[in-house]
Amino acid sequence: MAKFIPEPYRIKMVEPIKMTTREHREAAIKEADYNLFRLKGEDVYVDTLTDSGTNAMSDAQWSALMMGDEAYAGAKSYFKLVEAAQDIFGYGYIQPVHQGRAAEKVLFPSFLEKGKYAIANLFFDTTRAHVELAGARCLEACNPEASDSSLRAPFKGNMDVARMEEIIREKGPENIGLVVMTITNNSAGGQPVSLQNMREVAALCQKYHIHLNIDAARYAENAMFVKMREPECKDMSIKEIIRAFFDLADTFTMSAKKDTIVNMGGLIGVKDENAPYILKIKANCISFEGFYTYGGLNGRDLEALAVGLYEGLDENWLRYRIGTMEYFGERLDEYGIPYQSPAGGHGIFLDAAKFYPQLPYYEFPGQVLAIELYKECGLRACDIGSYMIGNDPDTGKQLKSINEFTRLAIPRRVYTQSHYDMVIEAINEVWKRRESIRRGYKITWEPPILRHFQASLTPIEE
Fold first, then answer.
1. Low-confidence residues of the chain, pLDDT below 70?
2. What is the pLDDT of residue 245?
């Protein structure tokens, strides 16, 4: 029987949430054009749309807000953040920005342009968008194990190194502007990347003189998985594992709204403090984010982020975090419900293609399942599949994702076991009537970039 791991914290403040009827929810999702991003937050009971910026800060972080130095340039809060980030990651230059996509917008144009390619172990939505906005194109070399949700393998988020080298040779090393290693691999289901795989990727990048960037949004969760699953790392501290990873890369981009448990913030790290492209980073930051010593953040945000960088490394917290996902997965196993297994670090990725094998990818089974779950219990989740991946930027043709997932991204320190159990029972109810779904959804309007945030959909009539 699944066992829930006790929380390593106490609740000191609560926020009321509204319980709604199915009738209310059906009207709400229709009004939102069947796009869960367009729902009103107050119409959601359990919100797992994202774990980005939806976390509950600690008493230490709230206290740190009062120390915020709001000087426009050179605030002491900036130097406190830089000191913390340099201590953890060992990089010479640290640039704060307001969130992860801002880090990509500021950094990527230094390496990507029309005619160039970026390779990743899988691109998430905003990363793909900023590669394309820079004029380049995305190529992927994900571990093939990630496409089999029932396969329980320890590092399904790894890069397929052999495939990566094939791509490099096919396109020419001079045309690969960037390699992005996402840890953990979000689009693969929050699956971890091993230190050995990171070493192999770094060796290839060095062989072909290609820049290596870490997408570091969930760097601490990845390190905990490595400690638990990679024998050589079992006696290393989380900080030591993080250093071992980051020593292998040239830069990192981070949405700090995940593992540093803040509501707003991001970072760019550059290993070489004398790298010439730091000047371009600063210039882009000033143009898009604000002066480079605040990067679009208030002084109080910088303070909370400096504290959160360390809080996210706590092993008791990380064991609880990963243990909660394991509990969720074990409960789903009891019902025979398919999901990306083993459970990822930041959420559960239901295998919507196995819920609805009768639906083709272009009718968006991941979106169908997300809508059905909202109707059932007020849960807000999101598609991580063909609906999210969008269209080929050159042909306009709908792309097919390697998986059709519905992601439940769990906010940190927000929900309790009772919430999880309610959601699990609702998933089971939707699972039991899965064969009643005959058709999916079609898009009636979409923007050219990051369509899933804004698109309008309608049910396809039989």
1. none
2. 98
pTM score of the predicted model: 0.96
Burial of 462 (0-12, 13-18, 19+ CB in 10 A): exposed
* pLDDT given for residue 462 in this prediction: 75
Residue 176 gets the label, from left (phi > 0), alpha (psi -120 to 50) or beta, of: beta
Cα(458)–Cα(388) distance, integer angstroms:
16
Q: How is 417-446 classified by DSSP, letter by letter?
A: HHHHHHHHHHHHHHHHTGGG----EEEEE-
Separation between Cα atoms, residue 75 and residue 20, nearest integer Å: 45
Report DSSP state, residue 111: T
Q: Which two tokens stand for residue 77?
A: 């809060």
Amino acid letter, 401? S
Question: Which residues participate in catalysis according to the annotation?
Answer: 72, 124-125, 215, 217, 258, 452
* Among the listed residues 326, 344, 325, 327, the one whose alpha carbon sits nearest the alpha carbon of residue 188: 344
Token match 């290839």: residue? 204
Q: Give the pLDDT score at 1.
A: 80
CA 342 – CA 345 distance, rounded (Å):
10
Contacts of residue 65, defined as CB under 8 A and 6 or more positions apart, other chains included, come to 300, 303, 304
What is the largest distance, in Å, between two alpha-carbon atoms of the chain? 62
CA dist., res. 308 & res. 304, Å (int): 6
SS (H, E, C) 363-403: HCHHHHHHHHHHHHHCEECEEECHHHHCECCCCCCECCCCC
Among residues 334, 303, 100, which one has the least CA distance to residue 219?
100
Are the C-beta atoms of 44 and 381 separated by less than 8 Å? no
**319-353 core/surface letters (b: 16 or more CB in 10 A; e: else):** ebbbebbbbbbbbbeeeebbbbbbbbbbbbbbbbb
> Three-class SS of residue 70?
coil
**266 - beta bridge partners?**
97, 255
